[in-house]
Amino acid sequence: MTGQPAGAAAAKTPRTARPEARLLVPALIFIALVVAAVASLGTPLITSVATSFHVSLGSAQWTLTIALLSGAVATPVLGRLGAGPYRRATILATLAIVVAGSALTVLPLPFAWLLAGRAAQGIGLGLTALMMGVARDHLPEERSATVIALISVVSIIGAGVGYPLAALLAEYGGVRTTYGLGLAVTAAALLTAWRSMPEAPEGRSAHVDVTGAVVLAAALLLVLYLAGEQHLWSQHPAVASGLAVAAVVLLCAWAVIELRSTTPLVDVRAVRHPAVAGANIAMFVGGIGMYLLLTLITRYAQTPHGAGYGFGLTTFVAGLVLIPFSVLGFVAGKLTPRIRSRISGPLLLAGSAVVVGGGFALFAAARSNLAELFVAMGVLGLGVGGFSAAMPGVILAVTPKSETSSAMSFNYVVRSVGYSLGSAIGGLILTTGTDPGHLFPDDGAYTTAAVVGIGAMAITALTSLVLARRRSPGTSA
């Protein structure tokens, strides 16, 4: 008699679970892609926003900066909430906020409301780590490793997917049309999550350290503000230095708060593990280099011929240069989990960093025609895709399942700060290389920036190699 109910349950379970399992993997990847692409919409629209809203380019730049800032601040909070029993509710509520923010960007409202909408859209970036947590909890181990790698990759190549389409829509339909696309895809992501996201496993608990969250938010605000406001360093260096010191003090205070808290926002003790610390250092320095080249190439392609170099491409055509980056990045993301069975995660990080450095070298040595830019961008995509796909395996190999979202959210914060600094360093180098009275920098400034990027990727590769040597023989990625 006991066998019949068990058999009936076994027969019943696949019918109820199979549709959810079938939807889960594409849903996770789709949501990660959408939030990354929508947050990056500010990049190709800065000039259009300045024209449409009659604001300066510096003010329009905040449509991108504020999304990155809100994402960096929200990520650790969402990561902690996602580690608890309310993960599904957290995902749905966050996507609802993103949809509401997308609506604000579409409605004919003043510029301040556009910034508020972009901040709400940026909060969605915190969902990437939660998607990884869902995959690790609800998929078989081998399958989850592959899916987590893809989620990590699409969270980066999302910018490459959204850039050309956003630029095309802005060129023919205006800024509101482009943001309308963001509203449509975020609404689709919310519906997808509502249909496919499972509840978190039982027995989890999560308490948000409000004090730690506020201190971290203040520190990140200063860091990203200083990275985005390059003129502050040249015009008011004393003020900029004071704010930099304040940011360091706040970060130190946050670390102390987390160490003393019984329910920390981020488990700082776990972050101190050699594998996790090494991976985050590699992510920080590598992020500086990766984003440096990504912004350099698109800016170089749009420089008019009158500057003595460049190709004078429109925003849309320049965005097409990102296609090799996205395609080869996705290919690398698919191949990396297979390679990881033969090569350790830290060695994959080192190899990917070398590939990214090769992209810098190509750009430094050969950029006289568009084909060479496409090749350099393709090499960058291959390296970034491999690096992004290998990173989660290195961290999660020493992280409990219940802490997946929290651990990866901290890595995302590190990545965001690295990207912001990479963008700022690139802009600073080009500004320094611009002669007085000239609008565009000298061609040699791009070479200098590429050399700096090669140095950053060399440090990243060396850090990863040290991590590979220190890695415990019993640890499996």
Automatic annotation (TrEMBL):
Its main location: membrane. Residues 23-472 form the Major facilitator superfamily (MFS) profile domain. It is a multi-pass membrane protein. Coiled coil: none annotated. It comes from the Bacteria. It is found in: Cell membrane. The chain crosses the membrane at residues 23-47, 59-79, 91-113, 119-135, 147-170, 176-194, 206-226, 238-257, 277-297, 309-333, 345-367, 373-398, 410-433, 445-468. GO terms for cellular component: plasma membrane. Pfam families: MFS_1. Keywords: Antibiotic resistance, Membrane, Transmembrane, Transmembrane helix, Transport. GO terms for biological process: response to antibiotic. GO terms for molecular function: transmembrane transporter activity. InterPro entries: MFS (IPR011701), MFS_dom (IPR020846), MFS_trans_sf (IPR036259). This is Major facilitator superfamily (MFS) profile domain-containing protein.
